[in-house]
Amino acid sequence: MTLRQSARAGLAALVALGSAAVSRTADSPPTFARDIAPILYSHCTTCHQPGAAGPFSLLTYDDARKRARLIAQVTRSRFMPPWLAEHGYGDFAGERRLADTQIKMISDWAAAGAPEGDPRTAPQPPQYTEGWQLGPPDLVLTAPAAFTTPATGPDVYWNFVFHTGMKSVRYLRAVDIRPGAPGAVHHANLLIDRMASAHEHEASPGAGFPGMDLDIQRSPFDPEGQFLYWKPGNPRPHEEPSGFASRLNPSDELVLNVHMHPTGKPETVRPVIGLYFTDEPQTRFPLLVELEADNALRIPAGARDFTVGDDFKLPLDADLLAVYPHAHYLGRRMEAWAVLPNGTRQWLIRVPDWNPAWQGVFYYREPVSLPRGTVISMRWHYDNSAANPRNPNSPPKLVTGGNQITDEMAHFRLQLLPHGARDQRRELDEAVLHHRLEKDPADFSSNFNLGAVQLSRLNPNAAVASLETAVRAEPARADARNMLGLALAATGRNGDAIAQYEASLRLHEDGRARFNLANAQVKAGRLDDAVENYRRAMEAFPDDPLPKQRLEETLALRDQRRNERR
Ligand code: HEC
User: Fold this and answer.
1) Which DSSP letter does residue 149 get?
2) Superfamily of the domain at 446-565
3) Least confident piece of the model among 188-197, 493-502, 513-522
């Protein structure tokens, strides 16, 4: 036997010994290799690896040894791993929580001087793909232009518009959003712009546009059903289960709404998004429903427990799949529960110590079944006293609802899947919009969206009433007047419809309103005007066959009339 061979044999014996000694005795302290590495690799290194959100890597013994005392401290206080939802109040997938025994193990290890143990017995560090976490995306889109944050001042919201360039319908299984500039970016929401109209806000194509309250005209047939979010609390993108991937049409555009906070120096933000597709069509249609109480937010300076809430009665049987609570720095505690028709009260989530730095979407391990008639309640508690360590104002001052990070919010979003095979999003949506209007009857967007849903549900009389309220609230909104025109036409008030389309076009030139106007003019016998407007609609939508087809029909009709007159 050579020297090398004997050394190797000895090594093998040691390894065998090491793996046999899986349970440690009272007098042998925990070691990194045997006890600590498995905890760090399963609970910490998704964020504590190079390039991730954590301020340092915890992949190697050296990384951990240097910070052993700090690690013991932050795990004992349950500051790490960060997780907002209280254990036992809702059963969430991917719960980040250490067992008491694991916390004690880390403490004992740090107290013993952070021994390494036998490195050969340590588990392999997890392999993180540098870059995209779900593998190479099917489509990678880079924001057409970067945005540079100011060095100081209030928060900025910027919207980046992405054109997919897709040629056929795809189904969106997952999105990996990389906003860039981690210090400056708080969070980001991706919206599917079904009307492809948000880019009209851009000063030049691709430039993006400012604003937080993104008023995207939604399609009543295909409202938001997925959380396409980037949140610090969700280090990994969510993958939709089979049948849940949402439809993405070639004409859809994507808008990434990014919330940024100046860092002291200008930061360049140019987000990249990775889209993952499936060819399996969508067969399950959840809806994002928001409970909120922003109008009730007038939090006096010094108030220690200012509470607002919202309660919504479910109009149909549904499964609750996920929730997303949202407030800013004064938020301290959040609670949500459901009272079932039989009187049972069930916790949905409880956040005992809110911290906006860890906001995220919480997916239930199993869907929570809520029967029709269930009342879903949420309560937000705020601390506007100097005792709140996150209070942005010193001394405290009155804070109201609003978009700035120094304003407050009281949101609770739910992903609800109506029971049954049928797509029932519009029924649910209509109930949600009615609920919002009970709180704020003149609200523009609730009336506008309700009108669109009512029209899509073949209830044009109700739609006219809702849309007239919307137009009264915001007379200069061209899209609301166009939609009101459609509702009026559907009730047979063709002359009134024409007046609304014309008013809409005076405010804003739009191929859709031209097309609608042309249709109404045909009905009114004004064929020359209709021909002109179909032509203009064709110029606006050269790829859409419909204006061309209607134009040809109208030209033929005009010829026929002329011949009859001869
Ligand atoms: C979801 C991502 C995430 C996970 C999981 C996570 N961390 Fe962190 N950790 C962070 C971030 C981000 C910070 C910086 C926080 C800050 O500055 O407020 C941080 C900070 C720390 C700090 C420094 C605290 C200080 O006061 O300076 C320690 C130590 C730490 N983490 C240890 C751990 C350990 C141990 C685990 C697992 C048990 C863990 N983290 C899991 C994201 C995470």
Assistant:
1) -
2) Tetratricopeptide repeat domain (1.25.40.10)
3) 188-197
Q: Distance between CA 211 and CA 204 in Å, rounded?
A: 16
Distance between Cα 350 and ligand 1 center (Å): 22
Residues with CB under 6 A from ligand 1: 43-44, 46-48, 53-55, 67, 70-71, 74-75, 80-82, 96, 98, 235
The answer to whether residue 90 scores a pLDDT higher than 90 is yes
Enter the CATH code of domain 287-428: 2.60.120.230
Residue 295 reports pLDDT greater than 80: yes
Higher pLDDT, 396 or 126: 396
Gap from CA of 111 to ligand 1 centroid (Å)? 20
Mean pLDDT lowest among 193-202, 421-430, 448-457, 488-497: 193-202
Expressed in percent and rounded to 5, the helix, strand and coil fractions of the chain are 35, 20, 45
Mean pLDDT of 335-363: 96
Task: Report which ligand 1 atom has the smallest distance to the Cα of 67.
Answer: 29
Copy the structure tokens of residue 458.
């073949």
Average pLDDT of every residue of the chain:
91
Contact yes or no for 64/71 (Cβ under 8 A): yes
How far, in Å, from the CA of 173 to the mean position of ligand 1? Answer: 29
Q: What fold does the segment set 139-278 form as a domain?
A: Jelly Rolls (2.60.120)
For residue 130, count other CB atoms closer than 10 A to its CB: 9
Tokens of 252: 């859809």
Enter the tokens of residue 321.
Answer: 């799949």
Is residue 248 predicted with pLDDT exceeding 60?
Answer: yes
pLDDT score at 154 = 79
Range 21-29 average pLDDT:
59
- Tokens found for residue 214: 């993104």
CA 514 to chain centre: 34
pLDDT of residue 6: 36
> 345 burial class (0-12, 13-18, 19+ CB within 10 angstroms)?
exposed
Q: Can you give the residue ranges of every domain in the chain?
A: 24-121, 139-278, 287-428, 446-565
Name the one residue in this structure whose structure tokens are 């991730």.
52
Peptide bond into 395 cis (omega under 30): yes
pLDDT given for residue 413 in this prediction = 97
Name the H helices within 87-178.
100-111
Check: pTM over 0.70? Answer yes or no.
yes
Dump the DSSP string for 328-355. Answer: -TTEEEEEEEEE-TTS-EEEEEEESS--
Q: Say whether 287-428 and 139-278 share the same fold.
A: yes
